[in-house]
Amino acid sequence: MIYDLICIGSGPATLGCVFNYLSKKQGKILVIEKDSISSGGLRNDCKINCTFPVGFPETFWNKIEADKYLSITKSFFEKYDIKIKTKGNLDKYIQKANRLDVELLDIEQSHLGTDGGIKFIKTLTNELISKDVEINYNETFLDYNNCKDGIHVITTNDEYITNKLFIAPGRHGFETVKDILHRHNINSKDNFIDIGVRVETTHDNYKIVDDYYDPKFLFKKYKTRTFCTNSGNARVVQEKYDNFYTVNGHAYSSETKPNGMVNFAILKSVKFTEPLASGHDFAKMLANMFMLAGGGHPIYQRVEDIRLHKRSTVEREKNFDFEPTLKSSIPGDITLCMPSKFFNSIWATLKSLDIIVPGVMNPSTILYAPEIKFYSQTPEFINDNFELEENVFGCGDGFGTSRGITAAWASGIRASMKILEE
Predict the structure, then answer these.
(1) Are 250 and 44 in contact (CB under 8 A)?
(2) I want to staple 230 with a disulfide (CB 3.0 to 4.6 A). Which of 236, 249, 253, 368 is the partner?
(3) What's the angle, vertex CA 178, arms to CA 374 and CA 41, rounded to 5?
(4) Whole-angstrom Cα distance, residue 50 to residue 47?
(5) Residue 166 has pLDDT above 80, yes or no
(6) pTM (global) more than 0.90
(7) Torsion angle of alpha carbons 79, 211, 248, 170, nearest 10°?
(8) What DSSP line would sit under 376-411, residue for residue?
């Protein structure tokens, strides 16, 4: 059997590609997913940002292109009754931010929560199955060969032949992307990284979330930004990679009972120049340093302890107002592992944020580390539809075409436009 299209990964980039493909024509499609459920941002918190430039790397997108594909993406989501959250009472925050040369972006957002995201995934995958799309779970993609009779796709389970191959392994697939590009001699750049911390505090210390669910602050002076705010029933979580953990945050839907907590990331973006070989390798080295310092676990440190230049300890925990929601994390000293260029910018960012939203630097506030976003691999595509070589496409956060759900979905749609051509 020869498939019309095989997709690697089942996250938002693949879903955008496949649903747009099926809206134009029928075809024999196979989706290969290494996990037991569809993965990606739809499963973890499912926060949807629908305004450029959030999630759209300027290397591959301008506002006109992004808005074109965002319109298609938003129209699709609206069919499933996904509503944009309202915002209000932001003037006081905007005025303070402007005085500090900080920008508060006005973003259209929706939030399904982790529980709502899982339900949404099941709805979408059931719809694909009803359209005769095959989905193979617990199967790992290994490689492909572009042959005369089609593209041979090799997995841990089998070998398939397809006319078009779409690869979208997401952030967790950064090693897969790196291997693919190396084996197939596709030029790429790997010199950009996002490293930071996950901040956790009480709702009373960050009340802006009452007016703006996921406030996006850009701190131009420090080249930092807030990212992925969670409130309501919010938790800090750890994400496992091959031999280390990073931290992240998520929240359940508004249908669940609030726990009175808020968490968000502060990320520092750095673009390296020569002679750095790999931004990914640099970030992995930092992550492994944190694992060594934390005995194999993420580290957290309280704001009061950072001010006093002390490491956080189990003994000192009785002095603070709330317990960390990430129970596996270890109190310690995050400045021991994080380079000063990153930490000094993050600490200055937090102090500026405390002027805009007073209370966020409460002595009990926690900084967890490391929070790292692995989406820096940027290939040299042969066209604007993210084609790596003839009939092989690479999309989503893993290939650097997006940094979030909607941009990944839009990337999939953009690639599908070329895939649909005979």
Answers:
(1) yes
(2) 249
(3) 35
(4) 10
(5) yes
(6) yes
(7) 30
(8) --EE--SSTT-EEETTEEE-SGGGTS-SSHHHHHHH
